[in-house]
Design a protein that fits this description.
Blueprint: H1 2-16, E1 18-20, H2 21-28, H3 38-48, E2 55-60, H4 66-76, H5 84-87, E3 90-94, H6 96-99, H7 105-120, E4 125-129, H8 132-141, H9 146-156, E5 161-167, H10 171-175, H11 181-184, E6 185-189, H12 195-213, E7 216-217, H13 219-231, H14 243-260, H15 266-271, H16 287-312, H17 317-342, E8 346-347, H18 349-360, H19 364-368, H20 371-376, H21 378-383, H22 390-404, E9 415-420, H23 427-439, E10 445-449, H24 458-472, E11 476-481, H25 488-500, E12 502-504, E13 510-512, E14 516-522, H26 526-530, H27 536-548, H28 550-553, H29 557-560, E15 565-568, H30 574-594, E16 598-600, H31 604-614, H32 621-642, E17 648-655, E18 660-667
Parallel strand pairs: 2-5, 2-6, 3-4, 4-5, 7-8, 9-14, 9-15, 10-11, 11-14, 16-17
Antiparallel strand pairs: 1-3, 12-13, 17-18
C-alpha cells in the first residue's frame, strides 16, 4: 500500500510540476527539428555520459539555440544512430511557474522535495531547468535558498542528472550559487553556427515560418536575410545567429502578408513594389480574381462571426450542433480561399531588403552596397571628413582592405593600430567614421576610456567589460582611448587579442575579435609634436621611440609588434582648421534647414579669423568645435523658438574686433538692418 501511495504521488508530481520531454515537444514545439548542430549535439551527449561533471550548464547569447540543443537530445532518442546511453534517458522539464504558484512557502518546499524524490526514483532521468537564473531568483524571493543545496545533494549522489540553461551574461550568477557547481557541472558555451550550418538551420526553420504564414520563402530571400544580419548589427536584431536571421524573416513575412491581405485596387497592389511583391501574369491568381477572393474572405469572416454569436446565444443542443457544423464549413471554406490567395505570394530578396531598411532605418542604397565598392571608396570617404592626416587614412584603409578580403589569419582581427599625436587632430574621429563607413552604423564604435581601468581589479574589469561587449557586437571598431592611463598589465592582453583574436572571461566565455578593428590611442610622446624646433617627421620618430622604450612606456615590444601599424597625427594647419569650422557650420545649416529656415554661414575669411582667435593648440580642432558649439548652437535654438511662425533665415556673423560670433534672424522679405562686414582676407597664419 505504501508503494502504491508513492507511485500515486509520483504521477501527481509529473502531472503538476514535471513535463516529460515527449509531451513538452508535442505541446510547445510540435514541428521541431534539429539540423546543422550535429557536432554540438554529440558533445553534450558525451558530457551526459561522463563519470564526473556529467551535468550541464547550457549558456549562450539569446537566439543562439541553447533550447534547441536540449530539445535535440529528446528528438535524438528516436534515431537509430543515437547511443542507447542517451536514448534510454528520460528528460523532464521543470514547470517553475506551477512550482512557485502557491503563496504558501511550506507547500512550495514540499512540492520541490517531491520533485527531487520523483526524479531520484526514476532511473536514468535528467532534470531540465530552462531558465535557471529565474528559478534561483524565485527560490530566493520565497525563502527557499535550500533548494540549491538539496538539488546539488541529489546530483552529488548521482540520483539523477540536471541541465541548467541561462544566457551568457547570467552565467556568473549560476556559477556563484554553490561552491561545488564548477566541480559537478560542465559549462557548454553555445556559439553561433558556422556559415554552412547557419544556412542549413535557417532553411529548415523557414519551413515552419512558411507553414505559419502560408507564404512561400524564395531561397534568395533566405540568402539575403543571412547576408544582412551578418553584415549589419542593428539594435532591432540583437540576438545571436540563427535568431537574428529568423527574426528578420518573420518580420518580413508579417509585413508582406499584412500588405498582401489588404484590399487594394489591382493597380495599387501592382505598384506596391518590393513590400507587396509583383504579380506574375501567369500566376494562379490574376489581379481581377484577387479582389474577388478578398471579398469572399471577408464575407466568410462576417458569416462566421454571426454564427458564433448565435451559437453563444442558444441553449438548444440541436440548434447548437447545426451552428457548429456551419462554423466548421465556414472554417474549411476560409482556409481554402486563404490558400488560393497565398498561392500567388512569394517572399523575395527584395522584400527582405525593404523590411530590413524599414526596421534598421538604413537606406536601401546603404544596405545593398557591395563590399568591393565600399572598400574602394573608403579612402575617399575618410579623407572627406578627416583633414590633413593623409598617412593614417591611407595606412588604415590599406590594412582594413587586406583584412576584410581575408588576407590574414582567420582568427586575427581585421586590423589593429596605435594612434599617437596631439589632442584634437582626428584620432577618435577617424575611428568614428571608419565604423560608420564599414558597418553603416555609428553605434558600431565601442569606445573605452582607459582611465577607468586602473587600480585594484582593473585587469579583471577590463576583461569582463570587453568580452561582454564583443560577444554582443562582434562586428565593430574598438577604440581604447589613452592607454597610458590604464593598468600596464592590460596592454599585455593585446598579445592575445591581436595574435589569437580571442579573450576569455572568468566564466570561461570566449569573445572573438576576428571581425573587429582595434585602435589604441596614447599621449606618449605628445610634447614632441608641440616642439616648434622639430619637424613632424622628427617628432613622429621621437614619439615612436618613446613608445618602444619599454622601461619608460611600460609597453613590451613583443606586444607592439602585433599591431598592424603605428600612426602619428599632425597638428592641424590653418587650412584644416577652416575645414573643421566649415564642416561644423554645414552641420548646423542642415539642421536649421530641416526646420524650414534658411541659413547663411560666415565667409571663409571670417571663419579663418575665428579659428585664429579661438584656436588652442593643445586642444586642437576641439577648441574650435567647442567655441562654435557653445556660442552658436544655443543662440540658433533661441531664434528658432522666438520665430517659430515666421519665414526667414538665420545669419551667422563674426565680429573681428570684438572676437565674438553672433546669430541674427532675418524675416523673409525684410531688408538687412546691418550689412555684413567683409574685410580683406587675413594674412596667412600658422597655428601655434
Amino acid at each position: 500500500m505504501k508503494q502504491d501511495n508513492k507511485n500515486s504521488n509520483s504521477s501527481h508530481i509529473v502531472r503538476e510540476f514535471l513535463i516529460p520531454g515527449h509531451e513538452y515537444l508535442r505541446s510547445a514545439h510540435p514541428d521541431f527539428e534539429l539540423v546543422g548542430r550535429d557536432d554540438d549535439l554529440t558533445d553534450i551527449s558525451k558530457t551526459l555520459m561522463r563519470k564526473n561533471a556529467h551535468n550541464l550548464i547550457m549558456t549562450g547569447a539569446s537566439g543562439v539555440g541553447t533550447t534547441s540543443l536540449i530539445l535535440g537530445l529528446e528528438t535524438s532518442k528516436k534515431k537509430p544512430d543515437t547511443p542507447y546511453d542517451i536514448s534510454g534517458k528520460t528528460f523532464y522539464w521543470l514547470d517553475t511557474d506551477s512550482l512557485f504558484a502557491s503563496n504558501d512557502t511550506k507547500t512550495v518546499q514540499e512540492n520541490f522535495y517531491n520533485v527531487l524524490d520523483t526524479m531520484s526514483r526514476t532511473s536514468d532521468s535528467v532534470l531540465v531547468i530552462q531558465n535557471a537564473p529565474e528559478f534561483i531568483e524565485a527560490a530566493r524571493n520565497r525563502g527557499c535558498l535550500n533548494f540549491i543545496n538539496a538539488l546539488m545533494g541529489d546530483l552529488w549522489n548521482n540520483n539523477f542528472q540536471a541541465i541548467l540553461e541561462c544566457r551568457d551574461n547570467q552565467l556568473s550568477e549560476i556559477l556563484g550559487c554553490h561552491p561545488y557547481i564548477r566541480q559537478m557541472f560542465t559549462v557548454r558555451d553555445v556559439t553561433e553556427p558556422e556559415p554552412e550550418n547557419l544556412k542549413i538551420i535557417v532553411t529548415a526553420a523557414a519551413r515552419q515560418l512558411e507553414s505559419f504564414h502560408g507564404i512561400r520563402i524564395a531561397p534568395e530571400a533566405i540568402d539575403a536575410a543571412i547576408k544582412l544580419t551578418e553584415q549589419f548589427h542593428v539594435s532591432q536584431f540583437e540576438q545571436a545567429q540563427p535568431g537574428r536571421t529568423l527574426s528578420l524573416l518573420d518580420a518580413a513575412l508579417t509585413s508582406y502578408r499584412h500588405t498582401a491581405h489588404t484590399v487594394l485596387p489591382p493597380a495599387a497592389v501592382k505598384d506596391a513594389g518590393a513590400l507587396c511583391g509583383e504579380f506574375d501574369q501567369n500566376a494562379a491568381v490574376t489581379e481581377n480574381e484577387w479582389s474577388v477572393l478578398q471579398a469572399d474572405i471577408r464575407r466568410i469572416q462576417q458569416e462566421r462571426r454571426e454564427a458564433e454569436a448565435r451559437l453563444y446565444g442558444t441553449d438548444a443542443q440541436e440548434g447548437a450542433d447545426d451552428l457548429k457544423r456551419l462554423l466548421a464549413e465556414k472554417e474549411t471554406e476560409f482556409k481554402k480561399l486563404n490558400r488560393e490567395i497565398n498561392s500567388s505570394l512569394t517572399l523575395t530578396a527584395a522584400d527582405i531588403y525593404a523590411e530590413f531598411s524599414r526596421i534598421s532605418k538604413l537606406s536601401l542604397k546603404a544596405i545593398d552596397s557591395d563590399e568591393t565598392s565600399m572598400l574602394l571608396e573608403m579612402e575617399k570617404a575618410l579623407s572627406a571628413v578627416i583633414f590633413g592626416q593623409d598617412e593614417p587614412v591611407k595606412g588604415v584603409t590599406a590594412a582594413v582592405r587586406s583584412g576584410r578580403l581575408g588576407l590574414k589569419s582567420p582568427d586575427e582581427p581585421v586590423a589593429s593600430f596605435v594612434f599617437l599625436g596631439p589632442s584634437g587632430t582626428g584620432k577618435t574621429a577617424l575611428a568614428e567614421h571608419l565604423a560608420d563607413h564599414l558597418f553603416q552604423d555609428k553605434a558600431a564604435l565601442q569606445r573605452y576610456d582607459m582611465s577607468e581601468f586602473n587600480g585594484d581589479g582593473a585587469v579583471e574589469r577590463f576583461i569582463e567589460t570587453v568580452t561582454e561587449n564583443m560577444r554582443r557586437r562582434p562586428y565593430c571598431v574598438n577604440i581604447f582611448d589613452e592607454m597610458e592611463k590604464a593598468d600596464k598589465k592590460i596592454f599585455d592582453l593585446f598579445l592575445q587579442i591581436n595574435d589569437k583574436g580571442q579573450l576569455t572571461n572568468s566564466a570561461g566565455l570566449v569573445a572573438s575579435f576576428a571581425n573587429s578593428i582595434n585602435i589604441v590611442t596614447s599621449n606618449i610622446g605628445q610634447d614632441y609634436f608641440y616642439d616648434e624646433k622639430l619637424s613632424f617627421e622628427e617628432a613622429s620618430a621621437k614619439a615612436k621611440d618613446a613608445l618602444s622604450d619599454t622601461e619608460k612606456s611600460g609597453y613590451r615590444n613583443e606586444v607592439l609588434n602585433r599591431f598592424t601599424g603605428v600612426y602619428c597625427f599632425k597638428t592641424l594647419e590653418a587650412e584644416q582648421l577652416l575645414m573643421v569650422a566649415k564642416k561644423q557650420m554645414q552641420s548646423l545649416a542642415r539642421r536649421v534647414e530641416e526646420k524650414g529656415l534658411g541659413f547663411e554661414m560666415p565667409r571663409d575669411d571670417d571663419l579663418t579669423v575665428l579659428c585664429r582667435d579661438h584656436y588652442v593648440r593643445r586642444k586642437g580642432a576641439r577648441s574650435i568645435q567647442k567655441y562654435i558649439r557653445e556660442n552658436v548652437a544655443g543662440d540658433i535654438a533661441l531664434l528658432i523658438l522666438q520665430n517659430s511662425n515666421v519665414e526667414g533665415a538665420i545669419s551667422i556673423r563674426y565680429d573681428r574686433e570684438e572676437k565674438k560670433i553672433s546669430s541674427v534672424f532675418n524675416a523673409a522679405g525684410s531688408k538687412r538692418k546691418e550689412a555684413l562686414r567683409h574685410k580683406s582676407t587675413p594674412k596667412r597664419w600658422k597655428p601655434h
